[in-house]
Write a structure and sequence with these properties.
By secondary structure, the chain is an alpha/beta fold. It is 29% helix and 33% strand. The chain is built from 7 helices and 9 strands; from the N terminus they run H-E-H-E-H-E-E-H-H-E-E-E-H-E-H-E. The strands form 2 sheets. A 7-stranded mixed sheet has the order 3-2-1-4-5-9-8, with helices on both faces. Helix 5 packs across helix 6. The longest helix is centred in the middle third of the chain and has 14 residues. The chain is globular, with a radius of gyration of 16 Å. The relative contact order is 0.14.
Length: 206
């Protein structure tokens, strides 16, 4: 995704990473890739943010700043239109717990991005949710991935409704692909069967 974004912009990335976790993507933004002008991250977990800072330092991510807080209320502050890439991987189902929260997130994303900027992420496909879970904003369910994710509560984010909200904020769908298809397109394969319930997306700021 980062390589696609860099090719799209033809230059260095100015990144806002919502729910950056433990900094697993630090290598993609580090000195070896040489593709980042600055990087702003935020995560709700203080231990995760601390580890992300360590990894950002280790990978020599340029001008990295990582805060602790909610992805909406503590959305990293940057000049309006200064970012050209906002990411949110494997976290929409924790952040966009209602239509209002989703719209608040999209408003912040749209304000951070300049024209042609990209909002990219990975989200749960509501079609893969357990039977009996309504495909509606905020419908709750539990998910567990042995040895990776403990049993935790997540919320349904209906994609069609999310994309419609995004369009109202000037963010338009560039692509939506299953996680498996996206990885195959990048010459990789997922070894985790449960990853098939996720999809990758990219929205472009008008």
């Amino acid at each position: 995704m980062c390589r696609w974004a860099r090719a799209w912009h033809g230059g260095r990335l100015r990144v806002v990473d919502v729910a950056c976790g433990r900094g697993g993507d630090a290598g993609k933004f580090g000195e070896r890739e040489g593709n980042v002008e600055w990087y702003l991250g935020v995560d709700a977990s203080a231990p995760a943010a601390a580890e992300a800072r360590r990894r950002a330092y280790e990978e020599r991510v340029r001008c990295a700043s990582i805060a602790v807080g909610d992805g909406v209320d503590a959305f990293p502050a940057c000049e309006c239109g200064a970012a050209n890439l906002v990411t949110c991987f494997f976290a929409l189902h924790y952040i966009a717990t209602s239509e209002e929260r989703a719209d608040a997130l999209l408003a912040r994303v749209a304000a951070a991005l300049g024209p042609g900027g990209i909002f990219a992420g990975c989200a749960v496909d509501e079609r893969a949710l357990p039977a009996g879970v309504p495909r509606a904003w905020g419908a709750r369910y539990t998910f567990q991935l042995p040895q990776l994710i403990e049993s935790t509560e997540e919320c349904c984010v209906p994609w069609a409704a999310f994309a419609a909200l995004a369009a109202e904020r000037g963010l338009h769908v560039a692509f939506r692909r299953s996680f498996d298809k996206f990885l195959r397109g990048a010459g990789m394969r997922s070894s985790v069967v449960e990853n098939r319930c996720y999809f990758m997306f990219a929205l472009i700021k008008a």
